[in-house]
From TrEMBL:
Biological classification of the source: Bacteria, Bacillati, Actinomycetota, Actinomycetes, Mycobacteriales
SUPFAM superfamilies assigned: FAD/NAD(P)-binding domain
Protein name: Pyridine nucleotide-disulfide oxidoreductase family protein
Highest taxon of the lineage: Bacteria
Pfam families, alphabetized: Pyr_redox_3
Stretch forming the signal peptide: none
PANTHER family associated with the record: FAD_NAD(P)-BINDING DOMAIN-CONTAINING PROTEIN-RELATED, L-ORNITHINE N(5)-MONOOXYGENASE-RELATED
Species whose genome carries this gene: Mycolicibacterium hassiacum (strain DSM 44199 / CIP 105218 / JCM 12690 / 3849)
Length: 660
């Protein structure tokens, strides 16, 4: 099947959707934008346009910020009051020539946050939110570098992978004046968004939040961007920052070895044509992420299937699904997106589900962003930043009550506490909106607490697709794969022309075959086995000047954007490199006791969360010991705070005379 065409997206420019691009558009354009805008974000932008905080008392604000709702649980009459005044304010702002916007002081900012968050923001969050809103430069600039430009020019860095994290690493290394090479095994920028190009593939985090904080939020055509759109965004960012000349594409890192005598990493690479080379670096950044190793289950006869058979992460563009009988094995995130996208093309689809997934109501999941709404993002001061806030605040750190295990709560494993049970009832009620078939509802309703596994975003498409005459959901286990189909344990053989594995990734072995050797030749894969660990998910004892991005213990299932976490990690990595250089050291690596204590606290915290609930008997989060080494259990706010700059006391800082 051909890759879907990339929708036209605006070219990136120097506008970062902060101050707003001046405009002289007519009244009807303003009216259209106001009608489509998020009212809470619009209200905040009005303050920036006028400097009048009395608007916050005169006009209604959101009753609550709710996930997947950009309107703040406001009544239609209240929203209309704000929109009517917004039209007047924006028109006046235009007629005044779009002057520089008002920037609040601390007390004024607190007042704005109290209104827009319905009182849920506390004083401890002020710096955190101000940085994301770009009312401060704390996130963009980070702590001032203490090393000299000359020191940084003599400190080459190798980055493994050019997905969102590796691309970000290149941008920040370049800005800091550090020479670098990115090694990417694929033929282009994009990482998982280049590999995963199956029909229906899209992001589960609102596009405003799944965006580099230093690049515009008015880029997106969808509220939840599709794969081609995300890939184009990453390509555009790479072009804007001129990163591609620093990337060796179609090249794989096969090994990396620490050379104690020279305090360098020797990085072995192999090109697509089999040629080998060795790169030398003072620091090594591993940006391979957790979704690089597709899993194909060990099912009898899997290699005997005669037709095309492939994983969603290795999509076959040359396979035409038109008029074919297709077997999709797996009904998790990728299968959930794939099946509705191909059902109109195929003759028949059989979906083999091992475990049902919870679906969160999200009517916006497939919605496009109207041009009028994008006009507001581009032109209204700070509007796009507040829109981003409205999209992430209700989900990042806001779910603690719902995911905590109450030891006194007994509901047969269906929920973990009273609040979690209420979420369960909401999810089930949503499912009943689209299906009255009790047998099907029984099949798709999980027997474990909500959010115990990855929660899927749903606008009803999944259940409507499963009710088609040409789609069947099969919950019986698979006995074997035959040359022309699939046999389930009840003995039924279902023919198939194409077999698609939608069976996820081995997140507990994220390095795959990559062999990284640290001090005294210790192998990282052996040290980790299926229990990977890293201090803050970034640095590892016995591996000097080695840094992970989207490493162990950083999969923030409580709603954070991977891109946001990557920015935290890269800010910290630059701080570590600067700490080494400014102190005249050769390397830094975390102390064993520091890393062990951090890993212990994270795992202990997770043991009290729904992901560890006994009813969640299997999930890709768990390793062979039942631990959750890939997950991050604390608040995103805490991660932002902990990664602002490294603490030298956490590290062994060595010079050449002390090298082993």
């Amino acid at each position: 099947m051909a890759e879907p065409a990339v929708k036209t997206a605006p070219a990136l420019d120097d506008n970062n959707a902060l101050l707003g691009v001046p405009f002289d558009d007519p009244d009807e354009v303003i009216r259209a934008a106001v009608a489509e805008a998020s009212v809470p974000a619009l209200l905040m932008s009005m303050v920036h346009m006028t400097g009048d905080l009395d608007l916050l008392d005169e006009l209604p604000g959101p009753a609550a910020l709710i996930a997947m709702d950009l309107q703040g649980a406001m009544s239609e009459p209240d929203k209309q009051l704000v929109r009517d005044r917004a039209f007047e304010v924006i028109r006046d702002y235009r007629d005044r020539g779009c002057p520089p916007p008002f920037v609040p002081n601390t007390e004024q900012f607190k007042r704005m946050l109290d209104v827009v968050s319905a009182g849920t923001v506390t004083d401890e969050h002020l710096d955190y939110i101000a940085a994301d809103l770009r009312l401060s430069d704390a996130d963009q600039c980070g702590p001032p570098l203490a090393s000299t430009p000359g020191q940084r020019r003599a400190f080459p860095v190798v980055v493994i992978g050019c997905g969102e994290a590796g691309l970000l690493a290149g941008i920040k290394l370049k800005e800091a004046g550090l020479p670098f090479t990115i090694v990417e095994k694929q033929s282009g920028v994009g990482g998982t968004w280049l590999a995963n190009r199956y029909p229906g593939c899209r992001v589960d985090i609102a596009s405003q939040y799944y965006t580099y904080s230093f690049e515009p939020t008015d880029y997106w055509r969808h509220y939840y961007a599709e794969q081609p759109e995300i890939l184009q965004y990453l390509r555009d960012v790479a072009a804007k920052y001129d990163i591609v000349p620093h990337v060796r594409f179609d090249t794989e890192v096969t090994a990396a070895t620490w050379d104690a005598a020279t305090a360098t990493w020797r990085v072995a690479v192999r090109g697509a044509d089999g040629t080998t080379d060795e790169l030398t670096a003072r620091a090594l950044i591993c940006a391979v992420g957790q979704f690089g190793n597709p899993v194909i289950p060990d099912i009898k006869g899997a290699n005997r299937f005669r037709g095309p058979a492939f994983h969603t992460a290795d999509w076959r563009d040359d396979v035409d699904l038109g008029g074919k009988r297709v077997a999709v094995i797996g009904a998790g995130a990728s299968g959930f997106q794939l099946v509705p996208a191909i059902a109109d093309l195929t003759e028949h689809v059989d979906v083999y589900q091992r475990t049902p997934q919870w679906m969160a109501p999200n009517p916006m999941y497939h919605e496009t962003v109207p041009d009028a709404a994008r006009w507001a993002m581009r032109h209204l001061p700070y509007y796009a930043r507040w829109l981003r806030f409205v999209s992430w605040w209700p989900i990042a750190d806001a779910l603690d009550e719902q995911v905590r295990i109450d030891p006194d709560w007994d509901n047969g494993g269906l929920s973990c506490n009273a609040a979690n049970h209420a979420i369960r009832e909401i999810f089930i009620a949503w499912m009943r909106n689209f299906c009255s078939d009790e047998d099907l509802l029984e099949k798709v309703t999980p027997k474990y607490p909500p959010m115990g596994k990855r929660t899927l975003q749903d606008n009803g498409t999944w259940l409507l697709t499963l009710q088609r005459d040409d789609v069947e959901l099969i919950t019986d286990g698979i006995a074997e794969i035959t040359p022309d189909g699939v046999v389930t344990v009840d003995g039924v053989h279902r023919p198939a022309d194409v077999l698609i594995w939608a069976t996820g990734f081995d997140v507990n072995h994220q390095l795959g075959p990559l062999n990284i050797r640290g001090i005294d030749g210790v192998e990282l894969n052996s040290a980790w086995d299926d229990s990977p660990y890293a201090y803050l998910g970034i640095t590892v004892p016995e591996f000097p000047n080695f840094f992970c991005m989207f490493g162990p213990g950083t999969n923030a299932v409580n709603g954070a954007s991977i891109i946001y976490n990557s920015e935290c990690q890269m800010r910290y990595i630059l701080g570590c490199i600067d700490m080494v250089l400014a102190g005249g050291h050769d390397y830094a690596m975390p102390r064993h006791e520091v890393c062990e204590e951090y890993h212990r606290r994270n795992q202990e915290w997770l043991r009290h969360m729904v992901y560890s609930h006994p009813a969640v008997s299997s999930s890709y989060y768990r390793n062979s010991k039942g631990e959750l080494p890939t997950l991050y259990g604390f608040r995103i706010f805490d991660y932002w705070r902990w990664t602002r700059h490294p603490n030298p006391d956490d590290y062994e800082l060595r010079t050449r005379s002390t090298l082993r």
